[in-house]
């Protein structure tokens, strides 16, 4: 509900002790079409302080949101120069993906992982961005590929991923270090490349995805040559 549905707001869903979204937790999308919430956090039967030095358990997104507020405070302590946009990105990037794969209107990017988020910013971070386009490798880039998955496949950040936008672009934060990055989408051959991310810098890594049917054609052509058939 509002004000979490406003584009400027950072909406928080509530999960239970086994990472299931609570029935009372509002779902997206917002009336303007944005996926909501942005992230989720524990919000069912949370132990909280009460007047007169007592304690009790309560449920609600009002119990989940303080977890995110505390996470933001820890991120600022770990890296005082971190910006609001970077905080948003770090919380979303390091969240544990739940529900449908990727961002969804139940969990957002997933349940926040405060340990991973703080570790992320403490070691320094940079931005990896680029564009995924379609075309045979021999003919160069053509149309942008939307909905492609960009995923880190090297340790220690294996599994971190995001989807390309409608124009084929992507951008996300990564801790400083060396990575193997993979780009994939149904109907295309998977592409892979290596990249080094430096602290407080941006690295551009573009991918060219070859339609799968072209790879099949190439394989058939090679098989024909290997069989000794003369090709005019």
Describe the structure.
Keywords: Hydrolase, Protease, Serine protease. It comes from marine metagenome. Residues 1-110 form the Peptidase S8/S53 domain. Belongs to the peptidase S8 family. With 232 residues, this protein is an alpha/beta fold. The chain has 2 domains: 1-122, Peptidase S8/S53 domain (Rossmann fold), CATH 3.40.50; 124-232, Sandwich (Immunoglobulin-like). 22% of the residues lie in helices and 27% in strands. Strand 9 (177-184) and strand 10 (191-197) form a beta hairpin. Mean pLDDT is 88; it is low at 218-222.
Gist of the model:
The chain has 232 residues and is an alpha/beta fold.
Produce the secondary structure layout.
Elements: E1 12-15, E2 39-42, E3 46-50, E4 54-58, H1 61-78, H2 84-93, H3 114-122, E5 125-134, E6 149-152, E7 161-163, E8 169-175, E9 177-184, E10 191-197, E11 202-204, E12 207-209, H4 212-226
Parallel strand pairs: 1-2, 5-11, 5-12
Antiparallel strand pairs: 3-4, 5-8, 6-7, 6-9, 9-10
Helix pairs in contact: 1-3
Question: Descriptors for this entry?
Answer:
single chain, 232 residues, alpha/beta, Rossmann fold, Immunoglobulin-like, 2 domains, four-stranded mixed sheet, four-stranded antiparallel sheet, 4 helices, 22% helix, 27% strand, globular
Oligomeric state as shown = single chain
Number of helices: 4
SS strand fraction: 25-35%
Average pLDDT = 88
- Give the count of structural domains: 2
The SSE string, one letter per element, is EEEEHHHEEEEEEEEH
Question: Briefly, what CATH class of the largest domain?
Answer: Alpha Beta
* Biggest sheet architecture: 4 strands, mixed
Count of extended strands: 12
CATH topology of the largest domain: Rossmann fold
The CATH architecture of the largest domain can be named as: 3-Layer(aba) Sandwich
Q: How much helix is in the residues?
A: 10-25%
Q: Uncertain runs with pLDDT below 50, 5 residues or more? A: 218-222
Instruction: Using the CA coordinates, give the radius of gyration.
Output: 22 Å
The separation of the N and C termini measures 67 Å
> Which structural category fits the helices and strands?
alpha/beta
Name of the CATH homologous superfamily of the largest domain: Peptidase S8/S53 domain
Shape: globular
């Amino acid at each position: 509900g509002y004000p979490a549905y406003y584009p400027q707001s950072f909406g928080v869903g509530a999960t239970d002790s086994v990472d299931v979204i609570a029935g009372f937790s509002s779902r997206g999308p917002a009336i303007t079409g944005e996926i909501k919430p942005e992230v989720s956090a524990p919000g069912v039967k949370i132990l909280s302080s009460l007047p007169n030095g007592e304690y009790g358990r309560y449920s609600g997104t009002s119990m989940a949101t303080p977890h995110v507020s505390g996470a933001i405070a820890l991120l600022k302590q770990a890296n005082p120069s971190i910006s609001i946009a970077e905080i948003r990105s770090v919380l979303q990037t390091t969240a544990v993906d739940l529900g449908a794969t990727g961002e969804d209107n139940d969990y957002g990017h997933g349940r926040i992982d405060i340990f991973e988020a703080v570790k992320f910013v403490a070691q320094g971070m940079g931005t990896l961005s680029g564009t995924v386009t379609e075309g045979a490798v021999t003919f160069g880039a053509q149309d942008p590929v939307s909905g492609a998955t960009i995923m880190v496949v090297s340790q220690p950040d294996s599994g971190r991923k995001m989807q390309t936008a409608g124009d084929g672009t992507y951008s996300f934060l990564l801790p400083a270090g060396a990575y193997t990055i993979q780009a994939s989408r149904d109907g295309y051959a998977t592409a892979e490349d290596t990249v080094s991310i430096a602290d407080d810098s941006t690295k551009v890594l573009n991918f060219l995805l070859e339609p799968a049917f072209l790879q099949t054609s190439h394989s058939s052509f090679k098989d024909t040559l290997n069989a000794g058939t003369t090709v005019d």
